[in-house]
Structures are given as structure tokens and as C-alpha cells.
Write a structure and sequence with these properties.
By secondary structure, the chain is mainly alpha-helical. It contains 6 helices and no strands. It has helices at residues 2-21, 27-54, 59-89, 96-131, 137-146, 152-171.
Length: 172
């Protein structure tokens, strides 16, 4: 359980660490640390996918951590959206005409990879909830699809958690 929490909390804080690294002094050290951060990002994402898939506990706990991770990531996604919007609006400057779309695409990929990685917790909770009868097949498919889209992933994570919690209380 401790390693499960460790990886989930690491995923929660990982994007914010990336933002903090942008404020490091020194050009050479900053680029080296950012490159190391990108390599470690793949490891953190991979470990969280494995962590969610290997969890042997209750589906409700998976749904809780999924919801918590998604709620903590909201400010990060909003920040990327606002910075991307500023770059799009700044395209009136000729120098940013070609750079802005590339940066916006990079921000979109970063955001979507984070959504997919955090959604593994929810998808595993949905699969387990469906197997134990807490979720119907139709709602499991719909909630699974919603977990793969921006904004709806947060709503779907809350719905899954509430449904699994109600089911557990009904049984007990």
C-alpha cells in the first residue's frame, strides 16, 4: 500500500516539479536537469501504469486515487491552456507565427499524456467495478471513454468513485 501511495502522490506532484525546474538558475544546468526530468517522466508514467494495473485492493481505493490525482492536476492543465492561449494570441508578432503552433502542440501532447496516465487508475477501477457488479457494462464503457477525454475525465472519475462507494455501503 505504501508503494501504491508513493507512486500516486509522485504522479500528482510530477507536473508541478517540471514547472519548478524552469526557474532553476544557470542555463547549462537547467537544460541538463530538464533533459533528466523528461527521461524520468517516462519512468514515472510507466511506474504509475504498472502501479494501477497491479493493485490488488478495492476498486473504490483506485477510484479515490484516480479522482484525487485528476483534481490535483486541474491547475496544471489550466496553466498549460492559458499559456497556450497567450501564445496563440501572440501570433500577430511575426517571430511567434511559427513557434506558437509548435508550442501549443507540445503543451497538448503533455496534457494528453498526463490525462492518459492518470486515467489508468480510473480505467482499472471501472473494470473491477464492472466485474463486481457495481457498474453496468454500458456505464463502464461510457465512463471508460470519458476517462480518455479532457474535462470529462475529471467528471467521470468523480462518478466512478461515488458509484463504487455507494455500492460498497449498500453491501455492508
Amino acid at each position: 500500500m505504501k508503494s501504491f501511495k508513493f507512486f500516486a502522490v509522485t504522479l500528482m506532484l510530477w507536473p508541478y516539479l517540471g514547472i519548478a525546474l524552469l526557474y532553476l538558475p544557470g542555463e547549462t544546468a537547467r537544460y541538463l536537469i530538464l533533459f533528466l526530468y523528461l527521461l524520468l517522466t517516462a519512468a514515472v508514467y510507466g511506474m504509475n501504469i504498472i502501479n494501477a494495473c497491479r493493485w490488488k485492493g478495492e476498486a473504490e481505493r483506485l477510484a479515490f486515487w484516480n479522482m484525487l490525482i485528476k483534481l490535483v492536476h486541474i491547475p496544471f492543465h489550466l496553466l498549460l491552456f492559458l499559456v497556450g492561449l497567450i501564445f496563440i494570441l501572440a501570433m500577430v508578432v511575426p517571430a511567434l507565427l511559427f513557434v506558437s503552433p509548435i508550442l501549443v502542440m507540445i503543451f497538448s501532447v503533455i496534457s494528453w499524456l498526463l490525462v492518459l496516465t492518470s486515467s489508468v487508475y480510473g480505467l482499472m477501477a471501472i473494470v473491477r467495478g464492472s466485474k463486481m457488479g457495481a457498474l453496468s457494462k454500458g456505464s463502464a464503457v461510457l465512463l471508460g471513454i470519458l476517462h480518455l477525454l479532457f474535462v470529462t475525465d475529471v467528471i467521470a472519475s468523480m462518478i466512478v468513485f461515488v458509484r463504487l462507494r455507494r455500492y460498497r455501503k449498500r453491501i455492508v
